[in-house]
Amino acid sequence: MNLQPSILKFDPYLNYNSTFLSPLQHGEVFVTKDGEEGDLDLGHYERFLGIKLDSNSCITTGKVFHTLLKKEREGAFGGETVQVIPHLVDEIIEKVTYFERHKKEILLIELGGTVSDLEQRPFLEAAIQLKKKKMEKMIFIHVAPILSLSYSGERKTKPTQSSLSFLKTMGIIPDILILRSEKEVDYKIKEKVRLNFPSLNQENILSVPYRRNIFEIPLHLYEQEKLGEKLNSLLSLDNFSKQESQELDE
Q1: Looking at residues 157-173, what average pLDDT do you find?
Q2: Co-location of 147 and 195 in the same domain
Q3: Looking at residue 165, which CATH number applies to its domain?
Q4: More confident residue, 117 or 3
Q5: Which of 76, 97, 187, 193 is most deeply packed, by most CB within 10 A?
Q6: Looking at residue 29, what DSSP letter applies?
Q7: 219 lies in which domain range?
Q8: Residue 221 CB-half CA count within 13 A
Q9: Are 35 and 99 in the same domain?
Q10: At which of 107, 138, 169 does a domain end?
Q11: Do residue 16 and residue 96 come from a single domain?
């Protein structure tokens, strides 16, 4: 299987890009191949995937507003009242469909911030609308923490349950849940989370303990949690790859 991937990172803050963001808050700025100054995570993605990203891969709320207001000043909306729904959400969706038009076969979208953040909601609404259009071609992966109390070692699932509850009110049920924690998350904790959300498949609740080296994370997901096999099953990537091969042969 040789599919062409790309990355899109949404950051809900109002800054246009990372140029003037304090490194004490967001880490070092990463510069893309076309000179855009974006989030440090983009550098990790480039090294993980062996690809080069450009400015289309780092989108902030500020950048979306900038594009939207420029269109409004140019009269693109024909006198309509410009609103969050549909105009802002449509502009977010446009940032996603750009990759489809440019023949990217797999797109990983990271929605930054924390679930229930007010500034994140237009992006969640855009995700819901995209899911309705691409039911079999799109999945949701939610990353959530399992906290450990230092004085007792007790492990708390409340933050994860709260974020899942909020997503459920928005109409989003994750296809895969990744639990981050200091130690491996055992079956009992996974089952406790799953019982509150029966639609979650136990096999798709993955444990990712903290690592000293960030490059160990994708290896852990691939080798121990079999994430590649799960993605293949959910997205029918083998069928996609076979269809692509047939088209190339023709």
Answers
A1: 92
A2: yes
A3: 3.40.50.300
A4: 117
A5: 193
A6: -
A7: 139-249
A8: 20
A9: yes
A10: 138
A11: yes
**Hey, which residues does 60 pair with through a beta bridge?**
11
Rounded to the nearest 10 degrees, the angle between the axes of helix 237-249 and helix 227-235 is: 70
Average pLDDT on 181-210 reads: 90
The answer, yes or no, to whether residue 62 has pLDDT greater than 90, is: yes
User: Could you give the number of structural domains in the chain?
Assistant: 2
Same domain, residue pair 59 and 71: yes
d(CA 164, CA 169): 9
- The reported pTM is 0.89
Are 10 and 45 contained in the same domain? yes
* Residue 60 CB neighbours (<10 A): 22
Residue 239 has what pLDDT? 61
Domain boundary among 116, 138, 160: 138
* Cα–Cα distance, 165 to 172 (Å, whole number): 9
On the question of a cis peptide bond just before residue 86, with omega within 30 degrees of 0, the verdict is yes
Same domain, 180 and 60: no
DSSP 80: P
Cis peptide preceding 5, ω within 30 of 0: no
Same domain for 160 and 127: no
Average pLDDT over residues 119-131: 94
Q: In which band, very low, low, confident or very high, does the pLDDT at 247 lie, cut at 50, 70 and 90?
A: very low
3-state secondary structure of 173: coil
> Phi and psi (nearest 5°) for 74?
-85, 0
Q: What is the DSSP annotation of 99-161?
A: HHHTT-SEEEEEE-S-TT-GGGHHHHHHHHHHHHH-TTT---EEEEE-EE-TTT--EE-HHHH
- Residues 213-237: what's their mean pLDDT? 90
Length of the chain: 250
User: Tokens standing for 191?
Assistant: 């089952």
